[in-house]
Design a protein that fits this description.
6 helices; mainly alpha; 2 strands; two-stranded antiparallel ribbon; single chain; about 120 residues; globular
Length: about 120
Amino acid sequence: MQLNEMPYPRSEVIDRCASLGEKFIEHFEKSYIGGIDSKDLKHHCAEMQSCYDTVNRMTIKPRAKMLDIDQMINWFFLAGGSLEYMFNNNDDMQNAYNKFIKSLLMSDDVYNSMLKVFA
């Protein structure tokens, strides 16, 4: 069991989530484009896992409240943006990212969730 980070003000949590979300999305995009046979897949998944785990441990002041699912999606997975904007209206990548997020939220395992995208 991992300990939660100390609570941060809401605005700081949003900023940290968006920053980590941008990094997460960048690694997802590289993984998706590289495909299942990419030699860098495990590296990108490890980076995404680190970002995800950090956000999962964040808490919001004043009551050390964990992020709810809507906050995770809007602040982290979408980095405050939209799928259309992030992936330049690439429907295939948007669908893959949606599938990936759904799997990740159920398993907390980036690598296995990424493998499901390629299945």
